[in-house]
């Protein structure tokens, strides 16, 4: 186990003890960097019924050449809908129309795409690999930049 992950888990356990909170013994924590220039990035295996808690922070863009025009890099919540309209090409470059460009999205296995943004927590409906990515289709990734740091707790 990497040293940073071990110290994070130890710190969380100490805080839980101090607050009188009992942590489930089988929670797995994964910290990953999700790059804006890559498509689906596998994070962890999830079994149906497991609780999944995802949190994300960082800055990225779907067009580094237009950063200034688009108001700078954005967080995992994505651009606002007006900026999404300005960018254009939605029919070709959105992975899902449920969220604007730049939103962190996920899916488990070949299941439906869901919006993560800055965070999401849910009980998994089916088993498979949890994948995360920016809401920007594979053919449109070449002008992206940045990354978001994601923590996934599965238990």
Keywords:
155 residues, four-stranded antiparallel sheet, single chain, alpha+beta, elongated
Largest sheet: 4 strands, antiparallel
Overall geometry comes to: elongated
**Helix count from the secondary structure assignment:** 3
Beta percentage is 25-35%
Detailed description of the structure:
About 4% of the residues have low confidence. The longest helix has 17 residues. A hairpin with a 5-residue loop joins strand 4 and strand 5. By secondary structure, the protein is of the alpha+beta class. The protein has 3 helices and 8 strands.
List the helices and strands and how they pair.
Elements: H1 3-19, E1 28-35, E2 41-46, E3 51-61, H2 81-87, H3 90-93, E4 104-108, E5 114-115, E6 119-123, E7 128-134, E8 145-154
Antiparallel strand pairs: 1-8, 2-7, 3-6, 3-8, 4-5, 4-7
Structure at a glance:
With 155 residues, the protein is of the alpha+beta class. It has helices spanning 3-19, 81-87, 90-93, and strands at residues 28-35, 41-46, 51-61, 104-108, 114-115, 119-123, 128-134, 145-154. The chain is built from three helices and eight strands, in the order H-E-E-E-H-H-E-E-E-E-E.
